[in-house]
């Protein structure tokens, strides 16, 4: 059934009805558009199996229809959740469209989470099917007995790469499922507010929370993020998203690339400097996107081998603050335009990007740099406000700071399965509190100055300080412990644990660190431990993290 109507039926009584078509914003329409208008444009993927795979938007659209049919054959109904544990690649791309396009919900899972957390979010999302890549076979074998709600496990590979033996019951082969279908499938049109994807954020305390994006929010986000003052995507681009498809949908690039008909290049699991540089060059990549950490690897590799970037023109860097020195190196030594961006899982994720206005071209270079180093101006579709302690809006003068609030078409209004609203009412409007502290200047350039939420972001991945503290406090010799972010040149932030020993107890740094082994993912274990006599507290007994961060601002982590 087509939902295309000649006019909107929601015109209020007395108002003149417009005479325009109303078409629901469907994720499938992005791929259909690419297949019809850029049908021979390539999608190139480095596979887990090691080789390079290439096909076109036309092929991808057909295979996505087959995926939709295969999902139907597995008995999945409308609204069912299907989990993915996969890298950036064409099969994951087909799942994005096959799942959402057929009115199911694509739940992208971050494989870097601790296995218990993965099991928790699979249960919370109520995933019916779990599709995963060969890399994750040992992980899924371990998890499968705990994933009691999952009815089907699908390995994203062909028959030749299926394991001879596995502990996973009735493991299905993705290529066999796809090949069994004929593609005779018409993308359905339905209400654009229907859920399309779920992405969990572990950025705050407690259990991860699911942000549930709609078709409408996803398409609008893709549209806005392709604009010139955002990612500036076009049909002449070759786009390599380094940011993973399990991280807020690779910042929407698997949607904005087909929207404009750009070539897509997927790096698979190979995110080291050498592999990325090879793909940049061989696939004539013009635009890339990722967290600052990945660029360190690329810069090191290029420096060591005396290499250049012959086609790459610009890159969006976000997810963590981009160090100004990295911006300068990429610009001055490699001719790359760096676009600093800020966003959140709850914002699908793009909120702001730093691009100059015409008048700024007159400014001295240093002042231009200062603006470009900020997190930037908000996109149309996102509004921002900074507020004081009692919610009063703060001036946009470039130095007064406040809690950063946002509202917009691709901002969450709540979380999956939770009744409580995260929104704050200010000036008669609902706002989402970001947990970031920022200033905004008269031109709308936002600068993140601090974070009110209690988390540490290492190489673009969250580490819950509460979790680190709870583990430390379980040690019999620890009286109190606080985990804070400490600056690290490679990972941006790494956890530093501040510990008060119980009176009369001996406790070494090594003993504390050993205590984390097996209790938390290795990469989340603090880099260092410092002992203090007491931790500063607020009047209400909360640890004063801001004071601690200040006290240890100059602390040098081992090996730095
Ligand atoms: P996530 O939901 O994992 O995308 O994390 C969102 C959070 O990452 C934001 O609320 C910020 O605290 C942080 N963040 C994202 N981009 C930037 C940036 N460019 N500079 C500083 N912090 C950032």
Automatic annotation (TrEMBL):
Its EC number is 6.2.1.-. Residues 33-416 form the AMP-dependent synthetase/ligase domain. GO terms for molecular function: ligase activity. InterPro entries: AMP-bd_C (IPR025110), AMP-bd_C_sf (IPR045851), AMP-binding_CS (IPR020845), AMP-dep_synth/lig_dom (IPR000873), ANL_N_sf (IPR042099). It holds the Pfam family AMP-binding. Keywords: Fatty acid metabolism, Ligase, Lipid metabolism. Residues 467-542 form the AMP-binding enzyme C-terminal domain. SUPFAM superfamilies: Acetyl-CoA synthetase-like. NCBIfam families: PRK06187.1 (NF004837), PRK07008.1 (NF005426). Belongs to the ATP-dependent AMP-binding enzyme family. This is Fatty-acyl-CoA synthase. It comes from Sphaerotilus uruguayifluvii.
């Amino acid at each position: 059934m087509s939902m295309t109507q000649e006019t909107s039926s929601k015109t209020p009584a007395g108002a003149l009805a417009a005479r325009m078509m109303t078409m629901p914003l469907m994720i499938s329409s992005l791929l259909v558009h690419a297949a019809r208008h850029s049908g021979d444009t390539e999608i190139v993927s480095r596979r887990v199996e090691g080789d390079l795979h290439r096909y076109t938007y036309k092929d991808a659209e057909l295979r996505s229809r087959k995926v939709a049919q295969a999902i139907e054959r597995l008995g999945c109904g409308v609204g069912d959740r299907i989990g993915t544990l996969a890298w950036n690649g064409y099969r994951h791309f087909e799942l994005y469209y096959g799942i959402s396009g057929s009115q199911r919900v694509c739940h992208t899972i971050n494989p870097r989470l601790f296995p218990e957390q993965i099991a928790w979010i699979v249960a919370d999302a109520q995933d019916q099917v779990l599709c995963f890549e060969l890399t994750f076979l040992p992980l899924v074998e371990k998890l499968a007995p705990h994933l009691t709600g999952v009815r089907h496990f699908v390995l994203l590979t062909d028959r030749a790469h299926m394991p001879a033996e596995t502990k996973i019951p009735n493991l299905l082969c993705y290529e066999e499922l796809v090949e069994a279908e004929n593609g005779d499938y018409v993308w359905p049109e339905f209400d654009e507010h229907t859920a399309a994807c779920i992405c969990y954020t572990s950025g705050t305390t407690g259990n991860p929370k699911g942000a549930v994006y709609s078709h409408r929010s996803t398409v609008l986000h893709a549209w806005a993020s392709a604009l010139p003052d955002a990612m500036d995507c076009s049909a002449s681009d070759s786009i390599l998203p380094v940011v993973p498809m399990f991280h807020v949908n690779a910042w929407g690039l698997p949607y904005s690339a087909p929207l404009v008909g750009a070539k897509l290049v997927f790096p698979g699991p190979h995110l080291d400097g050498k592999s990325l540089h090879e793909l940049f060059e061989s696939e004539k990549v013009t635009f890339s996107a990722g967290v600052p950490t990945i660029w360190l690897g690329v810069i090191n590799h290029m420096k060591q081998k005396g290499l250049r970037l012959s086609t790459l023109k610009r890159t969006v860097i976000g997810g963590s603050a981009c160090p100004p020195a990295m911006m300068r190196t990429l610009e001055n030594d490699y001719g790359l335009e760096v676009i600093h961006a800020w966003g959140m899982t709850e914002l699908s994720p793009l909120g702001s990007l730093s691009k100059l206005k015409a008048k700024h071209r007159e400014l001295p270079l240093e002042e231009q740099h200062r603006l470009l180093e900020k997190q930037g101006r908000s996109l149309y579709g996102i509004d921002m406000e900074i507020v004081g302690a009692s919610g009063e809006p703060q001036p946009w003068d470039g130095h007064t700071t406040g809690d950063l609030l946002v509202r917009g078409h691709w901002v969450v209004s709540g979380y999956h399965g939770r009744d409580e609203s995260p929104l704050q009412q200010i000036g008669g409007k609902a706002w989402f509190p970001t947990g970031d502290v920022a200033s905004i200047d008269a031109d709308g350039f936002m600068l993140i100055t601090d974070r009110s939420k209690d988390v540490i972001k290492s190489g673009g991945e969250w580490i819950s300080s509460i979790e680190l503290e709870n583990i430390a406090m379980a040690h019999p010799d620890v009286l109190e412990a606080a985990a804070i972010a400490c600056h690290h040149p490679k990972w941006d932030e790494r956890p530093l644990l501040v510990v008060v020993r119980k009176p009369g107890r001996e406790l070494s740094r090594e003993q504390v660190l050993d205590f984390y082994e097996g209790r938390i993912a290795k990469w989340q274990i603090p880099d260092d431990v410092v002992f203090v006599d007491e931790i500063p507290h607020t009047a209400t007994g909360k640890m004063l993290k801001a004071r601690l961060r200040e006290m240890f601002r100059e602390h040098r982590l081992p090996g730095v």
